[in-house]
Every structure is written in structure tokens, then in C-alpha cells.
Amino acid sequence: METILSVNHLTKKFGYLTAVEDLSFEINKGNVYGILGPNGSGKSTTLGIVLNVVNKSQGSFSWFDGKLSTHEALKKVGAIIERPNFYPYMTALQNLRLVCKIKEVPEDKIQEKLELVGLWDRRNSTFKTYSLGMKQRLAIASALLNDPEILILDEPTNGLDPQGIHQIREIIKKVASMGTTILLASHLLDEVEKVCTHVVILRKGKKIYSGEVDGMLTSFGYFELKSNEQEKLFAFLESHESFGTIKEDRGLLTVYLEEEMDAAELNTLLYKQGIVLSHLVKRKESLEEQFLTITKN
Amino acid sequence: MKRLLQIEFIKLWNSRSSRILILAYFILLTSIALVAAIKFDIGPIQFHLAEQGIFNFPYIWHFNSFIIAFFKLFLAIVIVSMMANEYSNKTIKQNLIDGLSKKEFILSKFLTVLTFAVVSTLFVFVVSLILGLIYSDYNELPIILSDLEFLLAYFVKLVGFFSFCLFLGMLVKRSAFALGFLILWQVFEMISWGFLRWKFFDEPTTETIMGFFPLNAMFNLIEEPFSRLNAVQSVAKQVGETLVLDYQVKGYEILIVLAWTLIFIYGSYALLKKRDL
């Protein structure tokens, strides 16, 4: 698989504060990555380092297997970090022309990208007259001008109203469906859960997990069960070695699995024991539950 | 190089205030020609400035390059703010993320400054040439082409001064404060002069030492041209003073200013490299 970005033992210190500590991960082509972490966990700093605006203290990173210098590589990257930054006195069109010059790409994509984010009609308004949502969308259009190999977004929905959030998410999904690699930093879990295939989780500058979203916890999920013969059910589950913790809440049993088992298998097993279920659901922990479990300790 | 200049041109020309200031600057450069129109005609006293010899070749190169150099303050505002605004709009960050290297960023600013200096010098050359051709008493080609080193000095003076402005914009990050700092620095150099002269050295030594300070070095490039005027000379003679004239452009003074230019540009680069944005 083609490596787009690899980060090796990266460390950043601001005076006494260590914002990023010994961080390593890899971004491969075609996946959608999320960098998760509470506020102040070093997400933006990490992105700032690989984007050439923050100096690293130790460690290294390389774009595209080190075949390109950082600023050459950045021409193939689209990135938005924090607030959208453009020249306030220039129109959307003028701003994008400038970006084309910097990235050394032809200007013929401007219309297509402005239409994608729904700003073509406002192309001749100066940037300072835009609302925050429009600014953010212009930033996305600008990041897409070079049809980037990877799109990096840092908290893209921060500070937007629900409508704006929805618009941005739709755009991200659209871009992801076109096969663009995406790296999304966020503390909003449902955002990451909806679009990402892989996650890197940071806490206080340290990586505590990186890999596929599904593999975050070595858990096999849990069952929610209900039966008319609750005691019998409880006793059976407790005696069986496949099950771990059992919780009861208003007549609903929540049973955590210790090993792989699907719903049909359990149903057959219980039926053979003469227990008839009135309710059977198999669930996986949501990203939020997993995230809270992982960042707790 | 063309790309870097285009980038900077888009940024400058689309800003109304920069555009107005740049235009005003070049109009002012041309307005030096208006000096020719100064004419008093009050009964017995007749005075026509153009006939006092200020437009004679080669003196005109000296006179105009000295006077016009004061207008550089207009461009100083543009240059300081083109650097400082990149910080206040945070566009410097976006430029770097978009794939401009830090070296290219500084280079694009420096190239713009060079362009300003080149265009200004050409302006001074053309305006002076025209004025000279109209009013000068001497029109022989060798005379016209002599003393052109004043234009070189003018060019170096502008490059040095504008580089200083760039550096201040980079250092202070706010245009108003950077301009304030520039004025403060001028005052500092004046006080240093007074202090050195008063406490430590005699006049020539003080001059030599102060010659290494950036603004003083830039000012020294072109000596004041007034004492060369016939009128001034004859007045001096009448009061029994002989003015010692040493108005040549000196090579080491150019070197000092070029050294400062290098320090300022490299300093800006070093600052940008070191800073976390």
C-alpha cells in the first residue's frame, strides 16, 4: 500500500509543556483517518508540524516516502487548519487565484470547486463579507483546487451552526466517496465515526491507539436479552464461559461477550436449554463508549 | 521568480489602500518636476528656482536623488503592512500550508522590494533626464552621463531601507507598531549620536561610528546637495567660510548598507524559520 505520510517518534515541546510526545503513525492511500483526542491533546500541533508551520523538537516525518521536500509535497495536499485564513479584502475568486499560483496549478478548476461548495454565486464578494460557514466552505474549495492526494481537516465544523455542520459533512462525504485520502482531526466522535475507517487516538500528546475503528477495543460486543424466565436465563449465562459481565437494568440483561458468538448461535443454545427469549439484540460498543474507555486511564 | 512576483502582485494590487499609496508615491516622484515652476516675481526680487542651477547636469542627479529619497516613507508604509498583515490575517500560515516554502515567502517579499527600488530608480532617472534636458545649461552627452553613481546610491538606499521595513514588519507583526518602531529607531540613532559626541569622541570619530548604524548609513549614501549650489557657495564666501565639499558616493558606504540589507533579509528568514505559527 502506498504511504502518504509517515510520522516517526515526533516530539514537540513548548517550553516545559510537551504537546506531542514520541508520536508515530502512518497514513496510507485511500483510507479515511481520524485523529481523536480531547482538547489540548496535541492534534493541531501534530498537524501543524507536518504542514510546515510548527517546528518539531525531535523525531521526523516524511511525505510520500520522502520523495518530495515538505513544501513540494504540500502542493499535493489540501489542508484546512483551525480558522479559514484568506485575504479579507480580496474576493473568493481572487483568493483562489492566489492559491493556484502558490500551488502551481492551472486556474480552470476554480469554478468546479466553488460550485462543489455552493459559493459560485458569491464568487465576487470579498472574503470579509462571508459568514463563518461560507468561509469554511471556501477553505474547503481552496484545499481541493489541486485535486489533492490527501485532504487534511482540523476541526472543520467547529463553531458552525447545525446547517453549516451538515453542509460540511456532506462535502466531506462527497470527497471521501471520490477516493481521496482524508485525515480528520476532531473531538466530535460521531463525526469521526460516520466517515473514518482508521483512527489515531491521542491523550496529552501521547498516542494511545492507532488502527482500524473496529479494532479499537478487543471486545466482541454485547447482547441485550429479555426472557420470561429471567432467573433461569441469568443462571445459565453466569455458568457459561463465553460470557463476562452481566448487568440488569429494568428487566433488560446486558451481557458482555468474552469470545466471538453470533445472535443465532446464542438463540439456538438457549432454546436447547428451554429458555425462550422475548428480546435479543447484538451490539458493538459505540465509538464514544470505546473512546471514553480508552482515554479514561 | 516570476511566480513569486505574481503572488505578491495579486496580494498588493487587490488591496485598495496599498494601491492608492503606491500610486500616490509614483505621482509624488513625478511631482519633483513641479519644483521647476517655483518662481517669485516680487518687484525687484526675481527668483526662478530652475535658473539657480539645480537642474544642471550632472548636479541634477545628486539633487533629485537626494530630495526624492524622502518620499520613500510612503512605500515604507506599504512594505511594513504587506509583511505585518500576513501575520494579522494569518495568511502567512495558509501560504505555507498551501506549499510556499519559507524561503520562497521571504524571497517573494524581497523581490517585490527590489522591484519597487528598480522602478523608483528608473523614475528618478527619467524625470531628472527630462528636467535636465529642458533646463540644464550643459547638454553634452559626457556631462549628462557623469555622476550617475548617485542613482546607484539611491537604488542601494531604497533597497536597504525597504529591507529594514520588511524586517520590522516581520519582527513586530503589527504594521502600526512596526512603523512606530522605525521612528523610535531613528530617534535612537540621533540620541546615540549626541551621546557619543558628548561623552566619548570628537566629531569625526562619532561620524565614523554612526556610519555603521543602519539609518545613518543609508542617509550617508547621498550627501546633502545644497552646499554645492552656487548661491550657497557665494554666500559662504562672503561670510568668510570655505565649505569643504566631499559629496562623492563612497564605495564602503554602499557596502555597509548592502551588509545591513543582507542582515535584515536573512534576519527575517531566520525569524520565520524559528517561529511556530
UniProtKB/TrEMBL annotation, chain A:
Gene3D superfamilies registered for this protein in UniProt: P-loop containing nucleotide triphosphate hydrolases
Keywords in alphabetical order: ATP-binding, Nucleotide-binding, Transport
Domain ABC transporter: 5-229
GO MF assignments: ATP binding; ATP hydrolysis activity
Pfam families for this protein: ABC_tran
Recorded family membership: Belongs to the ABC transporter superfamily.
Name this protein carries in UniProt: ABC-2 type transport system ATP-binding protein
UniProtKB/TrEMBL annotation, chain B:
Residue stretches spanning the membrane: 20-40, 60-84, 105-131, 151-169, 176-196, 254-272
Record key words, sorted: Membrane, Transmembrane, Transmembrane helix
Pfam families: ABC2_membrane_2
GO molecular function, one term: ABC-type transporter activity
Keyword set includes Transmembrane helix: yes
GO CC terms, sorted: plasma membrane
The protein's name: ABC-type transport system involved in multi-copper enzyme maturation permease subunit
